[in-house]
Amino acid sequence: MNTLLTLGQFGIFAGRVVRSSFTHKLPVARTIEEAYRIGVRSLPILLVISFFVGTNLALQGYVAFRPMGAQQMLGMFVGLAGVRELAPIMVAAMVSAKAGTEMASQIAVMRIREQIDALEVMAVDPYVYLVTPRFLGIVLVLPALTIISIATLIGSAWLVTVYQLGEPGGPFLALVWNTTSGTDLMVAGIKGGLFGSFICAVSCFCGFTSPPGPAGVGRATNAAVVISAVCCAILNYFVSEVAYG
Amino acid sequence: MTDNVDIIPHQDAIIRLENVSKRFGDLIVLDDVSMSFERGRTTAIIGPSGTGKSVLLKHLVGLLQPDSGHVWIGDVDMAVANEKLKYATRRRFGMLFQDGALFDSMSAGDNVAFPLLHHTTMSAEERRAKAEEKLALVELKGLYDRPTPALSGGQRKRVGLARAIIMEPEIVLFDEPNSGLDPLTSDTIDELIGKMKAALGITFIVITHDIVSAEAIADRVGMLWKGKLVAYQETSKFVHSTDPVVKRFLERNLGHRW
């Protein structure tokens, strides 16, 4: 019953955000600010994680293929697993943990300190002021972050393949290139945009409906990251099924 | 309606509450409250904590909807108005929240200028000049660039007050303007409210549990008790009320005079 009620509240929240976004002037400056905040500030940690996921992917692929004498297939493995699946979901998890929690906690604190009420009394729509720029910012930035993550992941896998495992780099890259296509990159980008919209909607909703007090902010933040991650994982399956199934 | 609740003629009222009731779960917070607020005068609503004072205030600006009854701001009923009309009506209000509700990411002056950014076409220089003028009015001249987290409790309230009046509203609401302040700072806030009332001719509605403050600033005082309006009179009459609930509240808070 509570889940149904929350889903209903989420529907109303999403409806208000969409309606407010279409009935007000787009907050361009704040959208750029949010895109910068989410994109640029998330980049260093994303590069580090993508780099080491790429190295491990190459190592594990090598360990799995070598007994069959198929280590030259490493490029295909990295291409399929990394580009199609790992990079998008990894970026989503990272952005959810970093930007999503930040959104949820900031909005929750604003809620308990009456700043959202203050916005309403000042006749400033809080949905347009707080949610729309974050939503547009994350939807713009996540596809780009996903592509950067893919490039980093492939680069680090190539480094491990060539310099640690002693396999030739040319065939590795050729297999990555032949296995993946522009469609794969487009699907990865679409996944990024979809995940971003879910992360933003869930995190902002958790912030707006935060229970009172510091404990409430903690619960809202926790719920934001857990629900976003679960939603993205489920969504990832369905998008892959539609695109590749 | 009791003898302790004065009726204000419709033509003098800027806000009218008609039979407003509100409950949260099993808890009745407002119970059939009817009252009017006079244009250009200061009204204080007092009462112990948890009697629905802040809930009443939030009904006036449409932040809460009554379960039944009407909240008339002029000819707009905030109880049934759509979002567009509510936002338009809210532009007639300014509000000072309990903790100021300032945005910590902005400077004091940017907080004050915030409504101008959203509702006017003023240039950055014009907004700054106007915000500085309002900061001077609340005796915070020269603090435009001070980061909000560096403000003291009293300064936060005054910045909140400057923000509340920057759009030159018809009505300013105060939610516990003295809470958390020392007696001297409280007096300063009361003096500021008095000064602004004289200078700007605005309708002030003050929620407080501080009867000393209410007596100092208000023309008329109302008292909420367990969700009901038990008294609503001219301040001079109210402080000599014979109603047992009001008397007990006054004795507790103005004991030194009794």
Estimate the helix proportion of chain B, in percent. Answer: 25-40%
The first-to-last residue Cα distance of chain A is 34 Å
The total count of helices of chain A amounts to: 8
Largest interface: A-B, 11 and 24 residues
The CATH H-level homologous superfamily of the largest domain in chain B: P-loop containing nucleotide triphosphate hydrolases
Tell me the radius of gyration of chain B. 18 Å
Total domains of chain A = 1
Number of strands of chain B: 10
Unreliable stretches of chain A (pLDDT < 50, length at least 5) are none
Shape field of chain B: globular
Q: What proportion of the residues of chain A form beta strands (DSSP E)?
A: under 5%
Roughly what is the average pLDDT of chain A, rounded to an integer?
91
Write structural notes for this entry:
- The complex is a heterodimer of chains A (about 240) and B (about 260).
- In chain A, about 90% of the residues lie in helices and about 0% in strands.
- Chain A is mostly helical and about 240 residues long.
- In chain A, helix 2 runs parallel beside helix 5 and helix 7 runs antiparallel to helix 8.
- Chain B folds into two domains: about 170 residues, Rossmann fold, CATH 3.40.50.300; about 60 residues.
- In chain B, strand 9 and strand 10 form a beta hairpin.
- The interface between A and B is medium-sized, with 11 and 24 residues.
